[in-house]
């Protein structure tokens, strides 16, 4: 077999999935927008040969591999898991105020041991889904007066709510869910007067897209196997 024939070799489902994983990482890192991601992902699942797969990730960090191995698997993340997200030192921000306005703490930031915030006729969002944590146990002291504060935590984090509400309230729905081994513990305290502090548990956009694509792939595999 000559080298010229290599790109014509048939690709496997595992090869296509490795390319899809590189695309998901690129979406999460901002290297691709959603339109580019969907276009390339469709091309990935329609590809039949190595020659069709390789150009899809040629301009991404994992490109430049030699076929037919198509070694497009991502490198293991350094410090992945909860142990890599609990760091020492100070937080990126320790307080926030919204008076007839709003504030956000989201994306890649470090949650301090104690974060204090005030929302007066305004609203705030504290998103911990992509955050690091200064300690394994952190506290959010939220004061909501005729306003609201939303706390968003990722799956696996333990939540404890200890706030007091007067003609207002704190959301206790996420309490009682056991945390994963080594995961942070988030304590929500404070005071709500004619206002509220909500707690939601959500996955990141990139993770949601990954789960969506897994379901899509499973559906395609079942269809190809004649299950429906």
Strand content: 25-35%
- The topology string of helices and strands comes to HHHEEEEEEEEEEEEEH
Helical proportion? Answer: 10-25%
Instruction: Please tell me what the overall shape is.
Output: elongated
Radius of gyration: 23 Å
Provide the residue-averaged pLDDT. 84
With helices defined by DSSP (H or I, 4 residues minimum), what is the helix count?
Answer: 4
Q: What is the number of E strands? A: 13
Structural class computed from helices and strand pairing: alpha/beta
State the separation between the terminal residues, measured CA to CA: 39 Å
What's the main sheet like?
Answer: 6 strands, parallel
Low-confidence stretches: 1-5, 63-80
Describe the protein's architecture and organization:
The chain is α/β, with parallel strands linked by helices and 228 residues long. It is 23% helix and 28% strand. Strands 1, 4, 7, 9, 10 and 12 form a six-stranded parallel β-sheet that branches. Strands 2-5-8-13-11 form a five-stranded parallel β-sheet, with no helix packed on it. It has a two-stranded parallel ribbon with strand order 3-6. α1 packs antiparallel against α2 and α1 packs antiparallel against α4. The radius of gyration is 23 Å and the shape is elongated. The chain starts with 12 loop residues before the first helix and ends with a helix.
